[in-house]
Design a protein that fits this description.
The complex is a heterodimer of chains A (109) and B (115). By secondary structure, chain A is mainly β. Chain A has strands at 4-6, 11-14, 19-25, 32-38, 44-49, 55-57, 60-65, 70-75, 84-91, 98-99, 103-108. The radius of gyration of chain A is 13 Å and the shape is globular. Classes of the chains: A mainly beta (109), B mainly beta (115).
Chain lengths: 109, 115
């Protein structure tokens, strides 16, 4: 089983739509959780950290369920500029980040 | 956020030659640097972790004699791909973390094409 699994997509949605991405992780000792965004041929950039209580940053909401080892990202009111690959990332303890394969999102006008 | 640079941003080399990629932390001291590799439509895969002044720790399946990592200072790490082959063509990304820090800051990546 892969350490971090994501639905690869692609998700093709119209502008203004709400879209949700899911991710599961296998290492129950994981302590830190993130969503990164990666544009084509670029490095990943931190979108937001994910906390057990859930957290929101503008149109983006992240949720963590430790019992189910499940992480989600919700994007409301999608913009064309949201088109990218979204990477689910975990850190099991004080170790390097472990990346999922990413979910590709295309927002269409 | 902190800034990490990589050089070159892209390189094309002939099979059998060696290529050196530099990763620099510009505004903080990177006690730990990580080297990742990403093939098309794949996730970032960690190749090795290096702590300043120590030998790098390589992930399983990564040949340490082929991918030479040097982390001689708190602001510079280098990855040398020796005797490159076409299958080494990939996107190489470095990441740096400061002492006691949690966040990893990523460089812009180096796209290597071996012909």
């Amino acid at each position: 089983r892969k350490e971090v699994e994501q639905d690869p997509g692609p998700f093709n949605v119209p502008e203004g739509a709400t879209v949700a991405f899911n991710c599961t992780y296998s290492n129950s000792a994981s302590q830190s959780f993130f969503w990164y965004r990666q544009d084509c041929r670029k490095e990943p950039k931190l979108l937001m950290s994910v906390y057990s209580s859930g957290n929101e940053d503008g149109r983006f909401t992240a949720q963590l369920n430790r019992a189910s080892q499940y992480i989600s990202l919700l994007i409301r009111d999608s913009k064309l500029s949201d088109s990218a690959t979204y990477l689910c990332v975990v850190r099991p303890g004080n170790t390097p980040l472990v990346f999922g394969k990413g979910t590709r999102l295309s927002v269409i006008a | 956020g902190a800034v990490v640079s990589q050089h070159p941003s892209w390189v094309i080399c002939k099979s059998g030659t060696s290529v050196k990629i530099e990763c620099r932390s510009l505004d903080f001291q990177a006690t730990t640097m990580f080297w990742y590799r990403q093939f098309p439509k794949q996730s970032l895969m960690l190749m090795a972790t290096s702590n300043e002044g120590s030998k790098a720790t390589y992930e399983q399946g990564v040949e340490k004699d082929k991918f030479l990592i040097n982390h001689a200072s708190l602001t510079l790490s280098t990855l040398t791909v020796t005797s490159a082959h076409p299958e080494d063509s990939s996107f190489y990304i470095c990441s740096a973390r400061g002492a006691g820090g949690q966040e990893q800051y990523f460089g812009p990546g180096t796209r290597l094409t071996v012909t």
